[in-house]
Design goal:
six-stranded mixed beta sheet, binds adenosine-5'-triphosphate, four-stranded antiparallel beta sheet, 36% helix, binds magnesium ion, 10 strands, 261 residues
């Protein structure tokens, strides 16, 4: 059996509506995320992709159900246990969340300063290497307010990759980047994953680009999830919302061999 990094068991998540009632985001959802592979989370805006990542990190409570990380039940953990859980993840949220008062260099060096015992020189080497990979050399001394949106995103990515975490959670890592940089970033993910062997969970609208990386695809729709073992497997789905998703994101050409059969 394949090893499981993250498991959702009968997870329910809803938000109270202002006028009473509930908005159900995840309705008794079950899925597993395999170790060392890339899982892409897809689905329309507002379907709960970012909420799903926040639940994994314990940033929001569930209504019911359980979440397991490496087989350990982490539902509702707090304090020290929650801190320990979070050190296992590298996270890039939508919007990058950099520290405004720190330079690019300091933002990227921060996790190494806080969580490693590396010397200043080792830190400098490692930070400069990742900044070079992400085409940020020459901008180390700038503050986040002096960067473009795409540059901020890349700084956030550089920071998330510093500790070579077990599990990477990326929320739309390439939104706002040009197509070449988008492709470069996905290539970097593929290379880094090969080197580090981390489990990746990527929320992305860059379909089909991101599908080149995907080992598994999870589609969120109206509180339910559909899990596909490969992007190709999605094309065989007859579910109307998946067919529509495939047509609108990948184009009909991807379905041509459905007709040939
Ligand atoms: N803290 C919150 N309180 C109330 N409702 C919330 C909260 N966070 C998210 N929601 C609601 O949950 C739904 C899912 O939000 P989420 O941010 O997960 O969407 P998403 O799939 O990431 O969308 P996008 O592709 O636009 O980023 C939305 O309707 C949103 O308004
Ligand atoms: Mg989102």
């Amino acid at each position: 059996m394949r090893e499981i990094a993250i498991e959702f068991r009968e997870v329910v998540k809803s938000f109270a509506k202002i006028n009473g009632g509930k908005q159900v985001i995840l309705d008794h959802v079950n899925f597993t995320i395999p170790v060392g592979k890339t899982t892409v989370i897809a689905g329309g805006s507002g379907q709960g992709k970012s909420v799903l990542l926040k639940l994994i990190l314990g940033l929001m409570p569930l209504d019911s159900g359980r979440i397991l990380v490496s087989g350990e039940d982490v539902t509702g953990v707090r304090g020290r246990q929650l801190e320990r859980l979070r050190t296992r993840f590298g996270v890039l949220f939508q919007g990058a969340a950099l520290f405004d008062s720190l330079t690019v260099y300091e933002n990227v060096a921060l996790p190494l300063r806080e969580r490693s015992t590396k010397s200043e020189q080792d830190i400098r080497e490692q930070v400069m290497a990742i900044l070079t990979q992400l085409e940020l050399t020459g901008h180390e001394e700038k503050f986040p307010a002096q960067l473009s949106g795409g540059m901020r995103k890349r700084v956030g990515l550089a920071r998330a990759l510093q500790l070579k975490p077990e599990i990477m959670l990326f929320d739309e890592p390439t939104t706002g980047l040009d197509p070449v940089m988008t492709q470069d970033i996905y290539n970097l993910f593929a290379r880094t994953q090969e080197q580090v062997g981390y489990t990746a969970v990527i929320v992305s609208h860059d379909i089909p680009k991101v599908f080149n990386l995907a080992d598994q695809v999870i589609v969120l729709n109206n509180g339910e999830v559909d899990v596909f073992d490969s992007p190709e497997a999605m094309q065989w789905s007859r579910e109307p919302h998946i067919v529509e998703f495939v047509e609108s994101t990948m184009g009909k050409i991807y379905q041509s061999h459905l007709v040939e059969q």
